[in-house]
From TrEMBL:
Organism whose genome encodes this protein: Neoarthrinium moseri
SUPFAM superfamilies xref list: Oxysterol-binding protein-like (SSF144000)
A GO molecular-function descriptor: sterol binding
Protein name in UniProt: Oxysterol-binding protein-like protein 1
GO cellular component: cytosol; membrane
Region entry Disordered, spans: 123-166
Length: 451
């Protein structure tokens, strides 16, 4: 939890407006122009600039759990790829509906767990019926918003009962490494026979006008496995994101470069090309994509233009912040009339779903919501000096533990995963991790006999 740079000197008990916070943020960032990786530096921000929520709670991909629960329901491989894509475009609703924020840095061994009660309201995708702008694929509904998804954070709440049939999705994540900062995660929906896992790690660089965030060396993306489809596995790699608007005083997120989704079993691949906007132009947040047949043993297509027309199954286009459509065949999306463009997902009516969180009395000392509760409560009550003091005490405890391990030549091991990192990007649950996840799936938050 160590930081190489102290917080900027500010009078923390005097509340700042958004422009004041941004000026403070920029003055800190200027010290890091040219630093290869901000994420490795792990600099500390004044408590006034922090989103009062733990990083492990914030970084999850279940902003729209209904889309995740629906993966694998289609019988045709191409339709299952579209189900994966529907999930992909909903996984970061927090950036579509909210503004960028900086949560707390995670501590080594810190963990977070929760459930989602996902409504099974995602209509089936069937490309045989494609060709209508009013596709049922876009009609996913959000049952209830997450009160912790906005900048005005409330205390953890239990999700209300949704209105229709649900599937429970369980989530377990742990900070497995501090240098570099890496966390492992596992998502499970047994009823639907789908699970996902991966390592989260970012690399960030400040150019003076934007912050570019890319996957770290241990982040190979999200791996989704369909248990009822002969363990069919999809790898979803992350594109680069840019935190811009710093000079204009209005922070915003844009996405650039490419993302890839591959499935070796079906031999179907998707390339998504995010189109970066000119710095003088209005942000369009455009994305183009192609789904095609590929050879997993000779996977050399990394640009849309590299894909021969004869291999193209589907073209995609739209705005990743609004609506995505697809068309069948090799012709560009724009060459098709609107009635031949099928909507795969419309993000406009969606918002971040609620989590079901463990009650406070069931939380362990190193569980995210418990570990950071003192800092959160101080920030919420605008006692920023107190928040900084509590945060510094917490950080010093982590340093003391690190010094003790070094003195005793102890090698730290994660509690819920078998490895700190690996070269494949697919973490395995430890026996403790399996036990915790099984209890979460049953709605049992007890950790007795496990930790």
């Amino acid at each position: 939890m160590a930081s190489t740079t102290a917080p900027e000197t500010v009078n923390e008990d005097i509340p700042q407006n958004d422009s004041g916070k941004l000026r403070t943020f920029i003055s800190i960032l200027r010290k890091f122009i040219g630093v290869p990786d901000l994420a490795a530096v792990r600099f500390s921000l004044p408590s006034q600039l922090l989103e009062p929520r733990p990083n492990l709670e914030y970084w999850n991909y279940l902003d729209c759990p209904s889309a995740f629960a629906a993966i694998g329901t289609a019988d045709e491989p191409i339709d299952r790829m579209l189900e994966v894509l529907r999930f992909w475009f909903t996984k970061d609703l927090k950036y579509v509906k909210g503004k960028p924020c900086k949560p707390y840095n995670s501590c080594l061994g810190e963990f977070f767990r929760c459930n989602w009660e996902a409504e099974k309201n995602a209509p089936p995708i069937n490309t045989k019926d494609a060709g209508g702008s009013a596709s049922s694929a876009s009609s996913i509904k959000s049952a209830r918003g997450d009160p912790r998804s906005s900048s005005s954070v409330s205390v953890p709440q239990t999700a209300e009962n949704p209105t229709g049939p649900t599937a429970r999705i369980s989530y377990l994540t742990e900070q497995t490494s501090h240098h570099p900062p890496v966390s492992a995660f596992y998502i499970s929906c047994p009823e639907q026979g789908v699970h996902a896992r991966g390592f989260d790690q970012i690399s960030a660089k400040f150019t003076g006008t934007t912050i570019k965030v890319s996957p770290g060396e241990h982040n190979f993306g999200i791996f989704i496995t369909l248990e009822k489809r002969d363990q069919e596995t999809y790898q979803l790699t992350h594109p680069a994101a840019h935190l811009g608007g710093i000079l204009r005083g209005a922070l915003s997120v844009s996405v650039g470069e490419a993302a890839f989704i591959t499935c070796p079993q079906t031999k179907i691949k998707c390339i998504l090309q995010y189109i970066e906007d000119g710095w003088l132009g209005r942000a369009q947040n455009k994305v183009e994509g192609v789904i095609f047949r590929y050879d997993p043993e000779n996977d050399d297509k990394i640009r849309i233009k590299d894909v021969p027309d004869k291999d193209v199954l589907i073209r995609l286009g739209g705005s990743w912040k609004e609506r995505i459509v697809y068309t069948l065949g090799p012709k560009p999306v724009d060459s098709h009339p609107p009635e031949k463009q099928t909507v795969i997902i419309d993000l406009n009516p969606l918002f971040v779903a609620s989590k079901v969180l463990p009650p406070k009395e069931a939380q362990a000392e190193n569980e995210s919501l418990q570990m950071w509760d003192g800092v959160t409560q101080a920030i919420m009550s605008k006692q920023f000096s107190k928040a900084t003091h509590v945060k510094q005490e917490l950080e010093e405890k982590q340093r003391e533990k690190a010094r003790a391990r070094e003195k005793n030549n102890e090698v730290w091991q994660p509690a819920f995963f078998t490895q700190i990192t690996d070269k494949g990007g697919k973490p395995e649950l430890s026996e403790k991790g399996k036990q915790v996840l099984e209890r979460i799936q049953k709605g049992d938050w007890s950790l007795q006999g496990i930790v």
